[in-house]
Amino acid sequence: xxxxxxxxxxxxxxxxxxxxxxxxxxxxxxxxxxxxxxxxxxxxxxxxxxxxxxxxxxxxxxxxxxxxxxxxxxxxxxxxxxxxxxxxxxxxxxxxxxxxxxxxxxxxxxxxxxxxxxxxxxxxxxxxxxxxxxxxxxxxxxxxxxxxxxxxxxxxxxxxxxxxxxxxxxxxxxxxxxxxxxxxxxxxxxxxxxxxxxxxxxxxxxxxxxxxxxxxxxxxxxxxxxxxxxxxxxxxxxxxxxxxxxxxxxxxxxxxxxxxxxxxxxxx
Length: 268
Fold this sequence. Notes:
The protein is built from ten helices and eight strands. The chain has helices spanning about 45-50, 75-90, 100-110, 145-150, 155-160, 165-185, 195, 220-225, 245, 250-260, and strands spanning about 1-5, 20-25, 30-35, 55-60, 95-100, 120-125, 205-210, 230-235.
């Protein structure tokens, strides 16, 4: 069962998984996938795109207190879950936008999209591949200050002292990280086979990268983009791992342009 958080309208079944889903707008289908920081990190993207598109923004099972079935233990499970969602809804020419972990999910969806439901990809500072010489920072080993220093162009502006976070919110964040460990902790934040598989993906992809990202560097992003059959790579100045938050205007403008480039006017 899928819960539509906006209108509470009935939605398509997705196996035996209770999927929490925010849905709004009309037009081309757009799937917006959040990273480890949760749905708030992509809320601005979803709200913006819903003005001109049919936007679906799921909460990954296990985040924000949502249930995660025992069988859902990897990013590949999430990729198949979201592909099934699009297929079961009869959606075509979908633009899939993913940030960080969500970008990894989008890439895994693309290599499995044998039905051709995806018409475009946007990966924002995505993890998911192993690039020699450009290791992914061990996020789990960082304290709160280290997370800020690696994630933001302006860490002093975005750093939050854990002592200032209410206890219930700290518990949610800890549960989110526990879920991320299950899904992406071993091997750490990548699929060893994904980089090789991407060469067969000819869906037009846009990879956006904050110039100051120290979780996954712009060099990592450039190599990621080069692995796709058809990809553009854009660096966003004055931004880190979440450019949609630090530089929303520049990020959204690039997403809008890619949406226009990849739109299929014949899709239904």
